[in-house]
Task: structure prediction
Amino acid sequence: MDYPGLKTEIRDHIGIITMSRPQVLNALNSEVINSLQKALKSLPRFPELRALIITGEGKAFIAGADIKELSEMDPAQAFNFSSKGQQAFERFEKLPYPVIAAVNGYALGGGCELALACDIRIASKNARFGMPETSLGLMPGFAGTQRLSRIVGYGNAIYLMTTGKTLNAEEALRMGLVQEITEPEDLLDVSLEVAKKITSQGKYAVRAVKEMALRSYQGDFKNSTELESEVFAGLFNRPEADEGMKAFIEKRKPNW
Result:
């Protein structure tokens, strides 16, 4: 079944979600987030699934949020956008089986945040990861401030989010952001092989491992992500956010 902005399929016991807005490098907007919610809500209808892969069509995994849409939001709309994105991404964590992000090309901003919400990240050699929101006068709003520090450590997370640095695949591997690197043409096949290895293990053992590891990993996650939405939305009251997004759309440097 396909939804606006994404495609879904099942191969044996493995689900595949493909972000499908290649003309805008799979940028996330409200419609796509709604599509993700609907696709994930439909998964319980397929009890045979034991692993899920998410990837992107074309040259990018997800190049970030749709900045034009963001630039037209007021704080209340920004809070709602952030909350809906967090809820959609949280569904990946709540799935009883592992989720693999097969990252081809850019995984920036919201795209990096979606990859962080997955259990395993496999990257092609041309993958690029980054959290450049501060260059727009904004911050991550899809729980990226929480997940990134838990995965790569506080120092690395602050470094990446405050500098906007983009990591190549090798740098992401060294930092622990990804678990494996492949040739671009082999990305889906390698991801499927990892998924097949997972499906060959004890079904309930895999589910138990994910549940218990997630309990340890999350800590006070819920309260922190709710606060993140409030702080994210508050930035939409500041002139620098207006200037940052306008500069991005106009393809120039912001005049802070």
In short: The chain has one domain: 2-186.
